């Protein structure tokens, strides 16, 4: 009877404590993992705007030498396509020579001391990288000399300006707000032309001179309007 009484008291005590224990469990705080941080879209560089820059490089082919100059232009981005127009002016020291076709005993030496380009541009951009092609008009300032291969004396010289065309392609990378750097290749088509020379004796001689050249330049541009970051 004593054992039965102890068991009965224990059951009653547990029954009385169960609601309080359940209440304690219900009151325990529930900890949940914090939500993940919001996803931020990557910024997209916008190539639209007015820009100005400098360039320097090397010319080769019929004329060889170094060049330095500047460019100014405007580009408009539409989706991943980029369109633009640019003017470029350079000092140059391109020179080359060939045997005269009219006077085989003489050598023609031609020097280009300046050139200019006005070109249109079309390109494709992937964020801050721009691939483009360009084409338009070219003009060169030239000096031509005729030298005797027999005695080495200069027989005549003349200056002229020649009009032609230019095509090219390049890649440009935006490396900081408003700044970009690139490399560009161009070919200048300067058609063969008859050049008139007047000697010291007053004799006028005409010779045909070819003056195409290739151009490889490194370019640095600053865009006045800050790049627009689209999300």
UniProtKB/TrEMBL annotation:
What Gene3D superfamilies does the record point to?
2.40.160.20
Domain Outer membrane protein beta-barrel: residue ranges? 41-199
Tagged with keyword Iron: no
Question: What domain of life is recorded for the organism?
Answer: Bacteria
- Record flagged with keyword Membrane: yes
Pfam families associated with the record: OMP_b-brl
Entry's localization field = Cell outer membrane
Q: What are the boundaries of the signal sequence?
A: 1-22
Give the UniProt entry's GO cellular component terms. Answer: cell outer membrane
Q: Which UniProt keywords apply?
A: Cell outer membrane, Membrane, Signal
Subcellular location, principal? membrane
So where does this one cross the membrane? Answer: none
Task: Show the InterPro entries listed in the entry.
Answer: Beta-barrel_OMP, OM_autotransptr_brl_dom, OMP-like, OMP/PagP_B-barrel
| Similarity comment: family membership | Belongs to the Omp25/RopB family.
- Put simply, this protein is called Outer membrane protein beta-barrel domain-containing protein
Give the organism the record lists: Bradyrhizobium retamae
> What lineage does the source organism belong to?
Bacteria, Pseudomonadati, Pseudomonadota, Alphaproteobacteria, Hyphomicrobiales
